[in-house]
Amino acid sequence: MHTEPAPSEPVVLHASPEAASGRPHVETPVAYDAILLASFGGPEGQDDVIPFLRNVTRGRGIPDERLEEVAHHYRHFGGISPINAQNRELKAALEVEIARRDLGLPVYWGNRNWGPYLDEAVRGAADAGHTRLLAVATSAYSSFSSCRQYREDFARVLDETQLGGIVTIDKVRQFFDHPGFVEPFFAGVRDAVAGFLDDGVPADAIRVLFSTHSVPIDDARRSGPRDVDWGEGGAYAAQHLAVGARVMERVAAEIPAAATLGWELVYQSRSGPPSQPWLEPDVCDVIEELPSRGVEAVVIVPLGFVSDHMEVKWDLDTEAIEAAEEAGLRAVRTPTPGVDPAYVSGLVDLIEERLRGTRAADRPHETPLGPWFDVCRPGCCENVRAGFKPAAAGIAP
Predict the structure, then answer these.
(1) What burial class does residue 254 get, using C-beta atoms within 10 Å of its C-beta: 0-12 exposed, 13-18 middle, 19+ buried?
(2) What's the rounded Cα separation, in Å, for the pair 103 and 390?
(3) Which of 99, 151, 246, 248 measures 20 to 30 Å from 16, CA to CA?
(4) What pTM, to 2 d.p., does this model score?
């Protein structure tokens, strides 16, 4: 007989029994039988571009004429976003590492906005008898678009496929400060700084810019748990700042001359009406003014991105590098994690920590903000425009 939970009990939709308690960290082993690799998706040809952008902006009533203003980024690269190819590589790398550890977990891959879609992946898993899924989303930080929207899509897919009550979907914690994610950024900044110093650029003439996707300020303020005052940029900005500080701390420990390097968090890829405030400053605006601060060389770090997808290839490799050239600056864009062995190993570490029920106190993290939650807290990462929709892997608000 089905009974509704008492009002005082947390409601965690579509969760494994172990995660359904709503505790922040699941510290008991969970017998998952498959991994769900969840990503954004991207077009793979010119004919895909506008249909893909319609998917991304669904429900917002944006006409195709305005979508075409963004489409030229994709058309510049033949209408092909690199993200699907990168996810194929990541899926293969995860499968190799999972097999090496003898974990016996298949990996199903599904996207939110382009094929293969999440519903295809979840149906495929269920058809194979794999009903206890652990999701790994290709996004490291807390915000609506980088966490809650994935969780809402998990719930939507389970409802639309009528697999709710049959399939459960938990999600690994946000991994912004997991060592496997931080290591590639540290190595990239270290190597770029060392290269400039070796070429005779003084340390005080080098600037490090950690760049991430801008989001509306109202959404940023609602990122992360509501019971913490994160400041203007919410948990989203706080997490990036903490990781940037840790990377620079490690670089200075290895290259003493780098201890005085200036750095800051910048934003990119904003969209929406000019009247809507988004997180600033913009990376290109900052680059333009760096010469007036005595800067000769800039290290551009795509801190908010796990791979070289369109926002990296266009907004940084094209626009930001051009801005640096126009400002007379030497510039290096450091690598994203991609399929770096440390990153791939780190993702599988996150999977194992849920399989084993690792205590929160024993989980590795590079900043004081971690380890982040396995089960998102009530009210986390609200979408100001749309409000709360049903979402898996978190306590319902």
Answers:
(1) exposed
(2) 31
(3) 99
(4) 0.95
Q: Which fold has domain 179-333?
A: Rossmann fold (3.40.50)
Whether residue 247 contacts residue 189, with contact meaning beta carbons closer than 8 Å, is answered with yes
Identify the three-state secondary structure at position 374.
Answer: coil
d(CA 269, CA 278): 10
**pLDDT tens-digit readout, 26-68:** 999 999 999 999 999 999 999 999 988 899 888 777 888 888 8
Q: How many CB atoms lie within 10 A of CB 339?
A: 16
Q: Is 343 annotated to bind ligand?
A: no
What does the alpha-carbon distance between residue 393 and residue 364 come to, in Å, rounded to a whole number?
Answer: 21
Place of tokens 């058309």: 75
- Are β-strands 132-137 and 168-171 bridged in parallel, bridged antiparallel, or unpaired? parallel
150 a known binding residue? yes
* 311 assigned to a ligand binding site: yes
213 is known to lie in a ligand binding site: yes
Mean pLDDT lowest among 61-75, 193-207, 212-226: 61-75
- The DSSP element (H or E) to which 211 belongs, if any, is strand 206-213
Give the distance from CA 137 to its chain's centroid: 7
- Structure tokens, 24: 């922040």
Query: Among the residues of the chain, which ranges form H helices?
Result: 49-56, 64-75, 83-100, 118-127, 149-160, 179-198, 217-221, 234-254, 283-289, 310, 321-326, 341-356
Work out the number of other CB atoms within 10 angstroms of the CB of residue 233. 22
